[in-house]
Structures are given as C-alpha cells and as structure tokens.
From TrEMBL:
One Pfam family this sequence matches: NMT1
Source organism per UniProt: Aporhodopirellula aestuarii
Signal peptide coordinates: 1-26
Keywords of the record: Signal
Residue intervals of the SsuA/THI5-like domain: 55-259
InterPro entries: NMT1/THI5 (IPR027939), SsuA/THI5 (IPR015168)
Protein name: ABC transporter substrate-binding protein
C-alpha cells in the first residue's frame, strides 16, 4: 500500500531549498491567511502518503468534527498515490505536514531531508503478507513455492530475506490489487491487515494474514511528520496541529462513521464502507496494543532499533541517521 519515496524527488527538493525558493512555497507563508497574526486562521495542508483510507482516519475526523477549526486551523487534506513524493512536498512548502511510516522517515533523513516525526498514531505496524487459506501456507516458514506480489524497495522485504523467509519465493511486481490471488492459490500479496483481508473475502477468497510485526519488523505507522524548519519557526502552530490531530485520532477510534464517509467520498480506488468500518476496528488494536499505551507515543528505544535494523539490512549507510533526530515528543501530552 505505502510506496517508497523517490530519492531523485527528495534530492531535487533539497536543491531548490539550497539554491533558490519557489515563490509562495515557504512553510511560513503557506500556513497563514492574510498575514501572520495569532488571531487569524492559519491555513495548513497535510499530504497523505496513499489514497485516503483508515490509516488517515484521524486527520479526516479532526476536519469533519471541527477539531481543526476550533484550533484556528483551516486544513486541506491532499490525497496521495503510488508515487507521492512526501518529503519533497514538505521541503518545498507545498504541505506543512504529512502522514508516512517510521521507516520512511529514516530513509528521508538518510537522503538529507530534515523530516521529523511528531506523533505515531499506530504502534503495531499493519504490514502483512496475504495468502489464500487453501495455499497450504500456515506461517512464514511455509512460503517456499509461493509467488509474492510485492513492491521493490520496501524495507520489510530485505528483512524477510535476511531471516530466510523468502527462500524459494518468486517475487513479482505488486499492482496495488489483490486480483492476482483470486484465481491462483499459490499467489500471495503484500497487504495491510486493515483493508485487504476483507476486500479478498468480499471477492469470495478465504485468506490468512501473516503479520510481519510478529517477526520483529515493527516501524511506527500513520506517523505525522513535518520539517525541522517548521518546528523551529512556528512551534505554536505545530503544537496546535499535533494536538488537534491527536484528538482527531482519539475520536476516530471511538466512533469512525463520520470520518469514514469523508474518506469513502475522497477514495476513488475501489474502497467500500464495509472495509473502512473493518479497518477502523483493526486500527484500535494497532493503536492501543497495551492497556498502558498512550496514544501517539514514541520512544527512543523503538527508533534506535529501527535505525540499527535498517543499517544492518544495508537499506541505509551505517551512521547515516541518528535515531534521536528522527522524532520529537515535545508536542505530545506529558506522559
């Protein structure tokens, strides 16, 4: 579902920032209307990393229930797609915030982009492999002989290879669809547990999900990010947006119907109301895996583990990224 950003797009954005700016695209200018008075509505945009789905439920909830408006924010949600250059959109000031995954934050920073996570909505990553129930595959150890539709460049793939789970597996391109497995019991697809399992069942295919997080690959997901520049220049606005988004997520996970209507209207890629309801139910467990989980929390230990794992997988160069630079908890409630 989530695509790896283009390195060229990030580098191009960096070049623009270093050697010249695009008129009207600075983060400060784009966040206010008719000046920068604290009493005036701040205009903010948030870039999604994929087509609107439940992974973005909190921002839609905060928009439709007035939470952003109550904070003096006029928010535009920009749908993503298969090639959305999230980091470039932020660096060029076309959006002030974005939704992405923690491993993408590490990749952005390794490429020289000062992207910072400010809230992690999902603690347990929804990434899974989807296999047919009649495939004979009960676990990752049974994958040999299967054809896997997957997107090259995703960091979970070298993780699976490192641990031997893809030995004897034929990897073919992923076309953002489960259609390939409908008529082939030996076809598996990369998926998110919040959507594709029900989509498959709606097409009459009984499936089994293999959660990659069970193996130890568990980056934060639905991560709200911004730039270090915006944090330094407009900390109050960042605080407002983070708090409103956090409250939006809390409200969404309690009662998703209103936001799901907006998500369904914005998604033109085969989504259904039933899948959105199913996904919201799955998201509650992923966002609150423990009774003590504080919504949106992030820890240095988790980020250090991720950075070290990505370096071991040679997805990033050793010492290219410092875990403490990837995130800040300054805008979250004291825990």
């Amino acid at each position: 579902m989530i695509q790896r950003p283009s390195s060229n797009a990030v580098l191009a954005a960096l070049a623009v920032l270093l050697f010249g700016t695009i008129p009207g695209c600075s983060g400060r200018t784009a966040t206010t209307v008719d000046g920068s008075s604290e009493n005036q509505t701040k205009r903010v945009s948030v870039q999604l990393n994929w087509f609107p789905e439940v992974e973005h439920g909190g921002v839609y909830q905060a928009l439709v229930d007035g939470t952003y408006e109550n904070e003096g924010l006029e928010v535009e949600i920009k749908p993503g797609g298969s090639e959305t250059p999230v980091a470039a959109e932020l660096l060029l000031g076309r959006s002030q915030f974005a939704i992405t995954n923690a491993d993408d934050v590490v990749l952005f920073r390794a490429q020289g982009a000062e992207i910072v996570a400010v809230l992690a909505a999902v603690q347990d990553n929804p990434r899974c492999l989807l296999v047919r129930a009649d495939s004979g595959v009960e676990s990752f150890e049974d994958l040999s002989g299967i054809t896997l539709q997957c997107q090259p460049g995703r960091a979970f793939l070298p993780f699976l290879r490192k641990h031997g789970y893809l030995e004897g597996v034929k990897e073919v391109p992923y076309f953002n669809s489960i259609a390939g497995m409908v008529n082939d019991p030996k076809m598996a697809v990369q998926a998110y547990v919040v959507a594709e399992p029900l989509l498959a069942r709606q097409q009459g295919v009984d499936v089994r999900t293999l959660m990659v997080s069970d193996l130890g690959w568990n980056p934060y997901s639905s991560v709200l990010v911004t730039t270090g520049t915006l944090i330094r220049e407009s900390p109050d606005m960042v605080r407002q947006f983070v708090e409103a988004t956090r409250q939006g997520w809390v409200n969404y996970l309690k009662s998703p119907a209103q936001a799901n209507e907006q998500i369904l209207a914005a998604n033109k890629h085969g989504m259904t109301a039933e899948v959105l309801q199913f996904g919201a139910e799955q998201m509650r467990t992923l966002a609150y895996p423990e009774e003590t989980t504080q919504f949106g929390e992030m820890t240095l230990d988790r980020w250090e583990s991720l950075v070290n794992e990505m370096a071991e997988l040679k997805v990033i160069s050793p010492d290219a990224v410092r875990a403490e630079d990837c995130f800040t908890t300054d805008f979250l409630p004291l825990q």
